[in-house]
Each structure stands twice: as C-alpha cells, then as structure tokens.
Amino acid sequence: MTDTPHLVLVDGSGFIFRAFHALPPMTSPEGVPVNAVYGFTNMLARLLREHVGTHLAVLFDASRQTFRSDIYPEYKAHRPEPPEDLRPQFGLIRDATQAFNVPGIELPGWEADDLIASYAVAIRKMGGTCTIISSDKDLMQLVGPGVCMLDPIKQTPIGPAEVEKKFGVPPEKVVDVQALMGDPTDNVPGIPGIGPKTASALINEFGTLENVLNAAPDMKKSKKRDMLIEHAQAARLSLQLVTLATDVPLPMPVEELTTREPDKLQLADWLDSMGFRSVLSRMGMGNPAGAHAHRAARASAHASANGHSTPAAAASPTHATGPADLLSAPYEGYETIRTAEALQKWVSTAQEAGLCAVDTETDGLDPLAANILGFSLATAPGKACYVPLRHEGTLEAPTGEQLDTAQALDLLRPLLVDASVLKIFQNAKFDLLVLDRAGIDHATIAPVDDTMLISYSQSAGLHGQGMDELSALHLNHTPIPYDAMTGTGRNRIPFAQVPVEKATTYAAEDADVTLRLWHVLHPTLRTNKALALYEQVERPLVQVLASMEKCGIAVDRAELTRLSADFESRMKNMEQGIYSAAGREFNIASPRQLGEILFDEMGLKGGKRGKAGAWSTDSSVLQDLADQGHDLPVRVLEWRQLAKLKSTYTDSLLKQTSKESRVHTSFQMAITTTGRLSSSDPNLQNIPVRTEEGTRIRQAFVAPAGRRLISADYSQIELRLLADVANIPTLREAFELGQDIHARTASEVFNIPIEGMDALTRRRAKAINFGIIYGISAFGLGKQLGIPAGEARSYIDAYFARYPGIRDYMERIKEEARANGYVLTPFGRRCYVPGIHEKSAVRRQYAERQAINAPLQGGAADIIKRAMVRLPHALTAAGLGEARMLLQVHDELLFEVEEAQAEAVAAEAKKIMEAAAQLSVPLVVETGIAQNWAEAH
C-alpha cells in the first residue's frame, strides 16, 4: 500500500437504478436489455481511465432482507418489484465488474450502504481517504474529513457544504434530521407533519434527536409538540433505520482492493459480447471490429468442433449518446395514474433515476390564476405517465378514479424539493407558478432545468423556442396538437372534459418530449460555448422572475380611473377636429374608412394598397403624410396615441388588477434575438417615457403605505458597451472622467468647445450617438433632426472620421454575421441574424443593422440579467431581504421596500448592478426613491 491510500467505493445498487431510468432502452446483440449495464460500464471505464484511487470496489445489495427489515418489517416493504427489463441486468453488471477486474462485494443481511460505511471507516483508520461514487442522500451522513462523494451521472462533488445545503445541518447531524422527517421512499416513519425545514430547525436548536424529544413536553402547545410526544418512539426507531452500520464484517480486507489493470483480451471480449464497441474504442483497445472478429473466430472454432454453423454477428445496440437514439423509443404506452400507490412508484423511480421531466395541465394560460388539472412525469424516453386531478368527464366518457389534488401534490412534493433529483421543464417559470398556486412554493423546487432556455441560450433568433418547434427540429417528431384534444371554434371543450385516456396520451407525451429534448440539447451547451450563459444567467433567472411575477406591483385604481376618463374626454374633443379636417364624420378606428378619405376623397399622394385592395393607414404612412404638412394625419396620429394608451394601459390595467390592487405582468424569457426580456399581459415595457401621458400612467404605479419604490437605472449602458467593445479611447476617457458624453461627442465631431455649447448641437450629437448604435441611415437621422438627408450624411461622415474605430467595429460585426450567421455579445450570447444573406438589399441592410446593434443591446441585457440573479442573495446577505424586486424595464429595475430601508436598498442595488460586469469603462447606475414610479425614475 502507498503512504496515503485512496479508496473509491462505487454504490453499485444505487447506480443500476439511476442508469436504467436515465438511459433509453437498449439491447445487446442477443436481445437482452442492457441500458443500465451500458451506463455502469461507461462510469467504470471512466474511473479506471482517470485512475482516481489506489483502491477500488463496487458494493451491491445482496437481498431485500436485512437487519433493518428484522427490526421493522415495513422497511422498504412497499417498494415495487424491479421492472422486467432491469432484472436481467443485475447479473450482467456483476459480470461487468469481473470483466474490469474490479472487486464486486455484497453481504447477506446488510445493505450496500452499510458496507460502504464500514469500508469508509476502515480506510480512515488506516490513514487513507475515501471517495463514494453515489448521490444517495442516505450516504451523506458519511461525508466529513477524508470522506467525500461524487455524483456519478452529473459528475459533481458532494462535500460538507452540499450536504448542509440539502439538509440544513452538517453531515454528522443528517441522521437526526432524517429520523424526524422520515422517508416515504424507504417507509421510514419519522414524525408526521415534520418536514425538512422544521426538522433541521429543531436539530439546529436542540442538537440531537433525543434532545428534541426530551424538550417536546416543555414546548409551546402546538400540533408539532403533540406529534413529537405521540410519535417519539417512531422517531427513535427511525434513527436506528437511517443510521448506517460502520462495523460490518468486511468480506474482503481493504488491502485486497488495490486497483488492478483488467485483462484486456477478456475485457474486449466481454465488451464486444455486449455490443459496447464505443467503449472499446474510447479505452484505446484497438479496432472494435478486430475484437469482434476475434470473438467470432473463437465462436466459429467452437461451433466447428461441435458440428454447428456460426450465424452472422448481430448488430451492436443503439447507445444513448445522440438524437437518433432518442427517436427509437416509441411515443406511446403511457400510464394513467389513479392511485397513491401508483404515483409513489413513479416518484420513487424518478428519485432513483436522479432526473425527470415534469409538465402541468391547467384550465388557463395565466399561471397566477389557472387551476392545475393534472401533471405528467417522464423518467426515461418512452416512459411517462399522467396524473389527472380535476377532470370532469362526460356521460359517454366518465373520468373514473382520480387522486385528491392535495394528496397527489403531497406525494409529488418530496420529488420536487429533492436537491438530488433534476426536474426538467419546458418553460419552467409557467409550471413553477402553477405549482406554487397549487400549494408548492416555487422557490423550494430545485434543481430545475428548462429546455426552452437551454435552446434559447444557444440559438436566439435562429428559430422559435416552443416545444412543438423544438421537437420537430431536434427529434423529428410532431407532438399531438392541443386542438386535437379539445376541438376548435364552437366545438372546443375545456381540457378538463377531455377523456382521461386521450389526456394521458397528450400530457404524458409533453413530458416525454421535454425529457428527450433535454438529452439532445443539454450536451450542446458546452460545444456551443453557452454553458456558462445558461447556468449563471438564464437558469437562475427563472426563480427570480417567478418571484417578481407573483409579487406584482401596486397601482392606484382611482388614478387610473381618472386617467381613463380624461383620455376619453380628450379623444371626444379631438374627434370634432378630425371630422372637420376630413370634411365629414367617419369611424376613426376604421383603417378602411380612413384610407378612403385620405386617398380617394382627398386625393393625397403616397398611398399604398394592401393585398386585399384596401389602403394602408399604419403609423408610418400617416407619419409620412404628416411630414408633408397634411393636417388630418397629424390629428389621427394624436387620437390613436391616446386611444392606445387608454385601451392598453388605463382600461386594461383596471381589468387586470388583482383584489390586492396589484398588477402582475408576465416576463417572456425566450422571445427576443438579443436576450432582452419582454413583458406581456400587461406590457409594462412600452409605456412612453418622455410624454406627459406616459408620465401620468407611471404615476399610477405606487408603493403601499409605509413603503417606497426604488428605480435603479443603468446610465447610457449601450454607449458604454460601444466604447468598450469598439475600443474608442476618446469615448472611454469621457466615461472614465464622468463627462457629458453627448457634449463630448459634439465637441469632437463638430470641433467646438464643450463650454457654452447650445442645446441644439448637443441634441444632434445625442441623436448620432444613439442612432449609430442602431445603424441609423442618413435619411433616418435627417428625419429625426428635421434636416436634409445630405446634411445628416455629413454629420455621420464627420462622426466616423473622428471615431474610425466605430466604423471598423461595425464592418467587423457585419463580416462575423455573414460568416457565422450570428454575432456574439461580450458575454458569449449568440444572436442569430437569419436575414444577413437576403438577396433583397432592403432586407439585407436591415439584418446588418440588427447585427450591429445585437452585441450592444444583448450585452446590456446580459448585464442587467446578471445583476438580477445576484441581487436577491446580496440583499438578503445585507439584511435587506424584505425588499422586493418588481419590474425590469430595459435598463431599469424597480423595487418596493419599507420606507426605513429605502436608502440602504438603493445603495446596495447600485453597488451590485455596477459590479455585474467588468468593462474598460465604469458602469453607472442612477437611483431614485419615491412614492410612485414616475417620481422614482
């Protein structure tokens, strides 16, 4: 033995179940199921290839009958029999350990966990260290000095910090927490009503289970106190059941577990017999075909000696390594769950697998108002179920037995909050809020992956991110349409009335497709260099936005009512002026009637007819006519502006206000090409900023009594990014010195001193600064400034002459877009520009302007998202955890806080936001505190 032996212990029994449910069905050349064997083989090959220890062993459960079932017959008694496809794989996995020349150890009467605990203690007594290859929560009590764990599928280490995060206590107190809360998976009774948070709080307060039980009679009268007293013996029994034995007689001494090289010929022969040729290749054991030929030749010789012919070799199995493999499992055979026992089996299966897809069915599209009708789970491609909860059925198709909603969610909750099980959703925020409304706090559901955001993080702008589109694109499968379930038009029925059998086929398929998409898309995050963006920004933002949507923002209903009445009155007054300019009355809201008056009756030039033959009267057409000096288009534009504000905001907000007088917008996470969030129902990001009406609408967004709103707004963030990415020394210097960037630009471009500069010159420089970001043309700039296009062109030319680096940057970005089809933000986000190769010059130039702007707008979006992810934790750490983040509007964040904490929260938000990214120029955040949004902004 070496001076410091390192023993690696593989939880063989635990890994078998996880691999079986994580990988799609596979068969050996002889037709035997081998997906768990394949997963186990890959894991073992990796261990040997990386040579992680001086000693190695795989531990197995010998049988279900152990000393625990002797003292408590109900222990694990409810667990279902292993699936038919898994049973033949137990023996094959033991064969795998022999083929790799690794000791496989089991002992009747003891669980593999007890053997692991005893070997871990033994190696520590010898001065060595131990790594346990498992994610089983029951083994986490062993973590400590010299003993750590490694998740074999996720390849993530589990140390004391990870254990404490999961249980709320250090590893040495895990058994006390487990004894209090029990474990329905293993039938450990625990104390009824005591969950993880309560259990950890009690142990942190009293130290041990026994201390908690002794203190119970003196506790304040409550249901918790009564349960602790009534079920004290059950808790003590539970402690015996969850505590691992560390004195099991070792079937093999530690000294005999030295890591040994396998017999390559024997291993190659076994791998080939299983069809695992890719493993052969990865292990560098020569041409897989050669190994197969050796086996075939040997079989031929044996057959000849016995007078038999040799059949052709069977094909190797399809491995779970790519999209094509996931297509092999059929989208059928889904199970309807109607009993608690059946649901518990699925929950246990998901926990054993370590990951599952989850989807909810509801009676509406607003997750804050919709009721859950059922949910589906998928634990492997082709293995999914649906749990109907509130289906109504019909006389022709009665619903049949359904689980009580509360009971079903209580059974589901341990899976959702289990930190060792990855929950996969498509558009996770929606399902999390649905589950939150149903009674499971969304913040407790972790860890969570979102296939929509996994795709969006690497393909924004390339295609849509809906499940149906992703399925067709990556799985070559078209999911069942919703309309096929409910019908359309007048014949549409609520989903609750869809026959449960049909609902199962539809809902379970959604979970199945989501899981398959995860298998296909998640590995590409690394190859597309989007893993950090997803893991550090998009993924954690889901819970942040869910909390913001759930909280909402308070509005002053009386002020909105006054505004609506005022807009109505002003529109009435405008109508008379419009009728006078038109020469007659007409329906102002009718584009057809307006077009006839403008172009048929008044004979104005510049009109264009649409495909249906009607005149176009959109805002661009009316603005062109207004610019020509025509009165009617000006009046109609003003009327439309008020009509839009009234319908979109004052009237709509009154309808969408909750009984608590709060409005809950929905943030769309995967719509824009640049990574910016968008807002809907209602859209709070398009309220006009610089108009009187927009200001009045913002005044209606208020803080409740005793509280204040805080606005924290990045100052000129896109210009700062331009100075950074284009490396413009003059602009960088201006930002570093805190100068007025527009005055500095005017001074540089027009060659005039900053001192005494008139407002018009500064305004022109400002228009150029922001126009350049969006690739503005001479025509567009001239129109904006009210000057001829030729004069505007001279301004742009002068700008580029003074800042040649900006033109170089723009040309470089356009070339990148043409070469790659996308551009990158400073933080690595891909923004695809599909129109960059358009034959139409107009469309191509528009795409070029998109490409120029995307890294800047997208970079700004990345920065504020990074800040949003960091802020909740930072505010909590600063003792300001009661502050609520309410809205994100482009470069601005809005908070609601207690009046006494407003200054402190504003200062902390400013600090975190300004530190969200390190640029060559400083990020500056301006904050304001007020009773309403308009005054805070």
TrEMBL record:
InterPro entries: 3'-5'_exonuclease_dom, 5-3_exonucl_a-hlix_arch_N, 5-3_exonuclease, 5-3_exonuclease_C_sf, DNA-dir_DNA_pol_A_CS, DNA-dir_DNA_pol_A_palm_dom, DNA/RNA_pol_sf, DNA_polI_H3TH. Residues 297-321 are annotated as: Disordered. One of its GO terms (molecular function) is DNA binding. The keyword Ion transport does not apply. It catalyses: DNA(n) + a 2'-deoxyribonucleoside 5'-triphosphate = DNA(n+1) + diphosphate. Residues 694-901 form the DNA-directed DNA polymerase family A palm domain. Residues 5-260 form the 5'-3' exonuclease domain. Keywords: DNA damage, DNA repair, DNA replication, DNA-binding, DNA-directed DNA polymerase, Exonuclease, Hydrolase, Nuclease, Nucleotidyltransferase, Transferase. PROSITE patterns: DNA_POLYMERASE_A. One of its GO terms (biological process) is double-strand break repair. Belongs to the DNA polymerase type-A family. In addition to polymerase activity, this DNA polymerase exhibits 3'-5' and 5'-3' exonuclease activity. PANTHER family: DNA POLYMERASE I, DNA POLYMERASE NU. This is DNA polymerase I.
